[in-house]
Amino acid sequence: MKRIFFILTLILFSCSIEKKEDTHIITAKNTLSIERNAEPVIITQEKIDKVLGKENQVKDIYFEDKNGKKIPFQKDDFNGKTEYCLSIDFKANETKELYVKISGKDQQNDFTPYTNIRLGKDANADGIFEDIKEERRDPDHLPGSDPVLYQAEGISWENDKVGFRIYWDKRNGKDIWGKTTDKMVLDSVGLPNTPSYHEIQPWGADVLKVGNTLGAGALAIKKNDKLYRLAETKEAHFKVLTEGPVRSVLELKYKGWKVDGEDLDLTEIISIWKGKYGYNSDLILKGSKQKLVTGIVNINLKKDTLYILHPNKNKTFLYTFDRQSEFKDNLGMALIVNTNELVKTEKAPNTGTGRSIDGNSPISHTYYVELQKENNRVSYSFYAGWEQSNSAFKTKEGFEDLLINEANKQVNPIIIE
User: Fold this and answer.
1) Are 118 and 151 in contact (CB under 8 A)?
2) Which of 51, 84, 134, 221 would bridge with 43, disulfide CB 3.0–4.6 Å?
3) At 51, phi and psi to the nearest 5?
4) Which structural domains are found in the chain, ordered by start?
5) What does the pLDDT look like over 25-42, one tens digit per residue?
6) Does 19 score more than 90 pLDDT?
């Protein structure tokens, strides 16, 4: 009997040792006294290697919470680094333990997709649009080309809250997909024989009139007090850098952008995360020291007002709020910028009707910001709050609260230990 008891004790002790050795914990801290739902969490490969130890550094992993539930994540490799991206809910001032698990051969990590990038191309003019992950735009591609080459006129990106698109021609305007579903829908929007996205559908609609404006964060240059739209360029390239359940990132490269005698190159990296009502843009300008410009359309404002707030010392946000959607209901639009990159806020003249499609008309009907930094690298975030997406956006105060919280989150990211 004593021998049996000794063997059982030894087995239990061995199991506890094995469990202890297989438990790898990373701590994630919310340092703000606000709830953070679907908050981006980035864990570097270096941190993972340190936690796992040398013997496990070549093995695949996954993440669990304290209750043993898998946490959706993706592993991204670009810009010469590897990182793991998660989207996690935090209570105010909450610290969470994330359990890093070694993945077995049969381990499945099939998570519901909550972000998406779409460039549909009808290369054969047969009405069939292929999902393109990398593309060089033809120099002679014009707005309103017939037959239609690109689905919905260009590149779209979305998450479970909102979507955006860029008219990928010399207009390079940005538009908003208002969403009423958390499903990924833009793969099938704008295809032949489908309902018009200018009318409200079960998933939502195109909610913005762009015209000659900068729409939802389109780009320009300010030189000698004149605005130059990011228009015709010698080359234009698109590439999906990553696309997953937690975030999607795309790259746009423009070469040979002629601005008043200068020949410029511009790279824009656009990212969208699960659970956010906006996208982030990181810009690199080469060939000039001029000011980069982005803005917010003001065509449908009933009250011509731009609100500007400084929620902390590092961020400034500018926003409009009015019954300015294409459906005459409430829509808030905002830019969050780095205060040390913000040069000036201006308003483009309200000239013309704001309804050009050729890309040649001057920028109009736009509140815009001039951004500049010594290394010619600047960034901004664009947010859109349509009242049919979230009842909080039925009021100006509801939209402003979102912006204050987002600006504070940006300067206080989740701390990984």
Assistant:
1) yes
2) 84
3) -70, -40
4) 22-102 (2.60.40.1180), 115-416 (2.70.98)
5) 999 999 999 999 999 999
6) no
